Structure formats: structure tokens, C-alpha cells
Amino acid sequence: LQQHKISAIGITNTSGTLIAALSAAELKGAVTTDNLEDGGDIIGSFLLPIMSYLNYSGRHLYERIRCLKSDSSMGHAVLKMASLGLHRAWVVDDDGKPVGIVSLTDVMRATVSQNEIVKV
Fold first, then answer.
1. Which among 26, 101, 35, 107 has a CA at the least distance from the CA of 64?
2. How far apart are the first and last CA of the chain?
3. pLDDT (tens digit, 9 = 90+) per residue, 89-106?
């Protein structure tokens, strides 16, 4: 993730429908003193298939995935992210297949760009 400057990845099932997401921040939090004290096998857990890892971690990260339809407005995306405390919202087509992502960084860039255009 870090090498390609990607902060999160979408996880799909075999038909390509978005079913989970995993961010770099969530991976960083996977190694905790609680896991180590409980005798958790941190290295071994990273060798599991992704969904098994999410279940193993006990964090149920996949339950927090939020999606927007591709025809949603940017205003709707901002409201949804703000009301749910999200850093990103996945954009999916009518079949639930990922077609994009909107992040807080995208929102800030668009806001700055608009302000620069207005000032000119």
C-alpha cells in the first residue's frame, strides 16, 4: 500500500462485488499489546486469506464499508462521510462492483481548486 501511495484497498468476491475494505491505518492497528499478551500469532495472521484475517483480527472491519452509487452527487458523498465519520466512501455500480472511491483528500483538493478558480 505504501509503495504505491494507496491508503486502502477494496476487497471483492469472485463476482467482483465489493464486500470489504482494508486500509493502511487499520493494518497498523492490528498489532496491539492485547494481541501480543493473548499469545496472538500476528505474523501467521498476515498469511491468512483476507476475509479470514478480518475475522481473526476480531475487528470486523468489513462491517464498516460504506458505498455510494455512481450517480451520487459530491455533496451527498461529503454529507455521508461526515455523518458517519468516514475517511473514504467507495463508489459502486448498480451491481455493487467498485468503480471508484471518494476520499477526504479528494474533497479538499476539489474545494481548494474551486476557491482558486473563484479568486481569479
1. 26
2. 37
3. 999 999 989 999 998 888
